[in-house]
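Structure first, sequence second, as always.
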């Protein structure tokens, strides 16, 4: 972890949210990334303590920058570059479960689910109770 400021697109790449800087730049240009509540550009300079809101695969992330690294390092080291907001993590998990339920229900266009599918649905529903 080095320096005191760096480009937003490079940080998102180094923190392993995107596989390439070009993908990070595309998401920033589409307005899916904000820094401290304001829409950002690729060249936005970020520093430790900035809050980044990110929508990735329609799931929300709220990150507080804890460190800067100019190189893309292993995932274990990349996780040290930020902390996540607990409320956003809980909301993201709830959205994942709802997406999973919608996927299970949409798998039956012909009518009734099979016995195996019914068991999966029951197991999933018990998790909600």
């Amino acid at each position: 972890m080095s320096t005191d400021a760096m480009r937003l697109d490079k940080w998102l790449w180094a923190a392993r949210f995107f596989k390439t800087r070009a993908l990070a730049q595309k998401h920033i240009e589409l307005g899916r990334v904000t820094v401290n509540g304001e829409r950002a550009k690729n060249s936005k300079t970020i520093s430790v303590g900035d809050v980044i809101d990110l929508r990735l695969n329609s799931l929300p992330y709220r990150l507080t920058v804890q460190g800067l690294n100019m190189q893309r390092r292993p995932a274990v080291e990349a996780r040290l570059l930020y902390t996540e907001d607990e409320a956003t993590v809980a909301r993201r998990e709830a959205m994942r479960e709802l997406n999973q339920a919608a996927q299970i229900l949409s798998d039956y266009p012909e009518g009734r689910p099979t016995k195996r599918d019914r068991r999966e649905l029951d197991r999933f529903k018990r998790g909600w109770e």
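Margin note: Helices lie at 8-14, 21-29, 75-78, 86-106, 115-128.
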